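Good day; I would like, with your permission, to put a structural problem before you. A protein sequence and the structure tokens that stand for its backbone fold form the material at issue. I would ask you to consider whether the tokens describe a fold that such a sequence might reasonably adopt. I set the record out below, with my sincere thanks for your time.
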Amino acid sequence: MPRPIHATVHTDALHHNLNRARAAAPDARVWAVVKADAYGHGIARAFEGLRGADGFALLDLAEAQVLRDLGWRGPILLLEGVFEQRDLELCSRLDLWHAVHCEQQIDMLSQHKTNVPQRVFLKMNSGMNRLGFAPHSYRSAWTRLNALPQVDEISHMAHFSDADGPKGIAQQMAVFQQHTQDLPGERSLSNSAAILRHAQGAEVRADWVRAGISLYGSAPDHPEHDAAHWGLLPAMTLASRLIATQTLAAGDSVGYGSSFVAPGPMRVGVVACGYADGYPRLCPTGTPILVDGVRTRTLGRVSMDMLCVDLTPLQQAGIPAGFGSEVTLWGRASKGAVLSIDEVAHAAGTLGYELMCALAARVTTRVG
């Protein structure tokens, strides 16, 4: 039989989380952000759960082709725009909208030979300091684009750097509004954190919101709030099985480096999951995990192919903990218990984003 570890992508959860974004920004259209192969979930697997979106936003032309091959005929936005001149040919063929964040991209558009003008999203660097035109040069960039016959409608876009924290969005909103005042075109500003935390204001919702991490059931402002607080459901479950148990005496250690030492007699389960599957190697003893739907903890270091769990809570509950017991690394247990990916990521000192995107190719992934 194959190794028991597998991932499940829950299309019902994706659909639910998309509706949460709509509820938070009811008068805006929603981009479903599916960059990084739908945050590791797989665009083809996630598509059915997200096809109710008004458009899809991503980075790669190949991912845009996947969406068109799946039958999507609505808007697709390239969030980083094009990287070279010939990319514009594919934008024309696939009817892609694309961001413009630098003068070089305007130069490429000016040289593009097409009979069909393209829809672009002009990006302002309102304080994130990654991509976009500085506020003082934004209007001149708009003027250049507006003069090109290769360009149809020009929309306006920025990205919040602190929507998930105490600094908030007020400063960036003020900069964006000041420098786009009186310019025609639709606007898009809000990421998941802004949708959930700040979208009470119509100027924040604008015309389009960009739902990313929240679609996949992760709280954009964890640990201040968890996914349940925002009414989000986990879109991915990583599950495996116990493949062995060990009985320890006081003083016995577990795993490489003997980082965990048993304080007394205890039973330990060995799980078919390790860092080669995408589980974080840095998860310490105490990282939450579910065995047969019961919350327990990891013990010792995570190995390449295995990790160990404390079976003490299962013994107390009288639940068998022998070979084959279900282990939920994150997501939904078959008995209904839920372990948020954010909790596991927090234990490893990282974010749910990274865990989703780091799922290894050797893990069989299915739709459920």
Notes: The domain at 11-216 is CATH 3.20.20.10 (TIM Barrel).
